[in-house]
Amino acid sequence: MYTIEVLRAKSRVILCFSGEMKQDPAAFFAELTAAANTAKLRDGEWEMLVDFSQTPVMPQDRAQNTARIFDWCLANGIRKTACVMTMLTQRMQIQRVTKRHEKIECFEDSQSAEEWLA
């Protein structure tokens, strides 16, 4: 399960996962890209806060889909992405699928993630 929230005033998309990732990849991608397009500033930039703290490590198919989503975000004006996660294996997985891109950072809590985005 997941939730997507758009904070237009901050040009931010907040994505929170809970439990196993069983969402339909195509529907999820459509919803996320629509939220990103809503959040974008006039210059086309936006940012994202992704909370993975309530979900287990992704299965391989989800990790591959996540890599494609991050590639889309990087190609479509994302300024920064802060990922919140509590497990070292999650951090390693995200760093691998994002190729340790400098616009994507991992944090152990939401407060640190939000401070980095500010």
Spell the H/E element sequence.
Answer: EEHEHEHEH
Q: Bin the helical content.
A: 40-55%
Terminal-residue CA separation: 27 Å
Largest sheet: 5 strands, mixed
Task: Label the structural class.
Answer: alpha/beta
Low-confidence stretches: none
Number of strands: 5
Using the alpha-carbon principal axes, give the shape: globular
Mean pLDDT: 95
Task: Name a few traits of the molecule.
5 strands, single chain, alpha/beta, 118 residues, 4 helices, five-stranded mixed beta sheet
Structure description:
By secondary structure, this protein is of the alpha/beta class. It is 42% helix and 28% strand. It contains four helices and five strands, in the order ββαβαβαβα. It has a five-stranded mixed beta sheet with strand order 1-2-3-4-5, sandwiched between helices. Helix 1 packs parallel to helix 2. The longest helix is centred in the middle third of the chain and has 16 residues. The radius of gyration is 13 Å and the shape is globular. The chain starts with a strand and ends with a helix.
Write the layout of secondary structure elements.
Elements: E1 2-7, E2 12-18, H1 25-39, E3 46-54, H2 60-75, E4 78-84, H3 88-97, E5 104-107, H4 110-117
Parallel strand pairs: 2-3, 3-4, 4-5
Antiparallel strand pairs: 1-2
Summarize the structure.
42% of the residues lie in helices and 28% in strands. It is of the alpha/beta class.
